[in-house]
Q: What sequence folds into this?
């Protein structure tokens, strides 16, 4: 037991273990909330894979190509906020599965334009939304003040984790 002085004298406080538990409780609650977020994202990606037969990042890329016929790999990378090599890998996988096609039209014969193929359209029709994923959709629904606080607080957590900043441009649904 830990003794604590009060105005009326000395009294017994809760055991030190309980005090440590009380200090840890906010961290435990935050951990549970992260588990909820991660599990919601994981469940969505599992549903995507089961219903559409492609990973979450592939579905997102496919949806962008569908809505922006003729888009190039660099523009796809910008639209997804990923590195160009990540977008290239997604495109390669979608081409191999014959979900999208490529063409070198226009004046710059090096630039590849992407277009969805009928099989890709079928994948989009049977896939559960949102195509970009549930987390980006949920974040987009938050007001600016909440997003600013979240950004600031997550920056502190990322610093405490010592996380590699390069991981910021890898989609959660990367297959």
A:
């Amino acid at each position: 037991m830990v003794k604590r002085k009060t105005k009326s004298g000395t009294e017994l406080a809760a055991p030190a273990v309980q005090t440590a538990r009380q200090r840890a409780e906010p961290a435990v609650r935050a951990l549970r909330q992260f588990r909820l977020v991660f599990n919601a994202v994981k469940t969505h990606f599992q549903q995507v894979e089961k219903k559409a037969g492609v990973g979450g990042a592939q579905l997102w890329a496919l949806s962008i190509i569908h809505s922006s016929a003729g888009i190039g790999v660099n523009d796809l990378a910008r639209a997804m906020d990923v590195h160009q090599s990540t977008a290239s890998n997604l495109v390669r996988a979608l081409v191999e599965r014959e979900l999208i096609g490529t063409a070198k039209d226009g004046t710059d014969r090096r630039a590849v334009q992407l277009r969805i193929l009928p099989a890709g359209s079928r994948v989009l029709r049977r896939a559960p939304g949102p195509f970009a994923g549930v987390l980006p959709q949920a974040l987009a629904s938050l007001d600016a003040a909440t997003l600013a606080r979240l950004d600031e607080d997550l920056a502190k957590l990322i610093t405490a984790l010592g996380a590699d900043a390069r991981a910021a441009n890898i989609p959660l649904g990367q297959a």
